[in-house]
Amino acid sequence: MIIKFTGNKPQYMTSGAAGADLISDKDVVVQQNEVVLVSTGTYIQSEVGVSVTLLPRSSITNKRGLMIANSVGLIDSDYTGDIKVAFRNIGPADVLIKAGERIAQLVVNPVIRADFQKVSSLQETSRGDGGFGSTDVDIPEVVVIPAAEADATVEADNVSVPKKAKKKAQVKLQEYSSTTSQVSK
Q1: Multiple choice CATH, 4-110, 3.40.50.150, 1.10.540.10, 3.40.50.1820, 2.70.40.10
Q2: Exposed (0-12), middle (13-18) or buried (19+): which is 54, by Cβ within 10 Å?
Q3: Exposed end of the chain (fewer CB within 10 Å): N or C?
Q4: Backbone dihedral region of 69: left (phi > 0), alpha (psi from -120 to 50 degrees) or beta?
């Protein structure tokens, strides 16, 4: 497949790479808790029926504290402008991105366009409207205790835990343990 480009060329860094790396077009400082659009100086044009996904490089997050603010960028075949990466700095300090630094990657995807058909109801499934972790049966619920309810703290494994939170967490853990033992029988 051919993707036309002008400006900076996306580069596959290994023979097995699924993503082609993009570089920053100029020096940019991303301050802590700030979102900044970083220009790559790359312009592409793909065929109709193809989209390009913009993803972060793993090292930019785990080593630098930068994440793509909208999680994933989607570049449609009819967009031909400068590819920009919206970075949010979640790290403990400001981050300097230098011109020429590899900052993101492009992955080429086929596009299947759907014909959406309006119906009066949807067929029932075992999952139904369960979402946002509804299939995570092995993960206990997190108990959040407002500070106003915490009457004192207890040191446990080098972590301060409000007494009420510890008691509620133990109750939840007991409920979770009995639920999982019933499921496994």
Answers
A1: 2.70.40.10
A2: buried
A3: C
A4: alpha
